[in-house]
Amino acid sequence: MRLIDITNSYPHLVAQQLAHTDTQFVKVYSLGSTTVVYTQAATHDELLFTNETRNVQDAELAFTLEKLCGVGLKDVDVVRGPKLAEISLNSQARASES
């Protein structure tokens, strides 16, 4: 698996996130057919996974968490929906685990 930075393809999404939320940093990645939106705010980080054709797999979640945040899948709570998953991390907890 490879995370490819595709943030430049989503200028409207980035502008909206920065303007209307407490987000300080936004990156968008492609993980094959899955898109990952990674945002950082002062108190938390969030990862949103979407896939238009199937549900997001645990292997994708684990790979991305390790690469971007340095935490394992067993250390987080995942909110799942049809063809999407969301993970929220307390920034202080993430920093202490790294």
From TrEMBL:
Q: Which domain of life is it from?
A: Bacteria
Q: Which InterPro entries match?
A: DUF1827 (IPR014959), LMG18311-like_sf (IPR038226)
- The name this protein carries in UniProt is DUF1827 family protein
Q: What is the lineage of its organism?
A: Bacteria, Bacillati, Bacillota, Bacilli, Lactobacillales
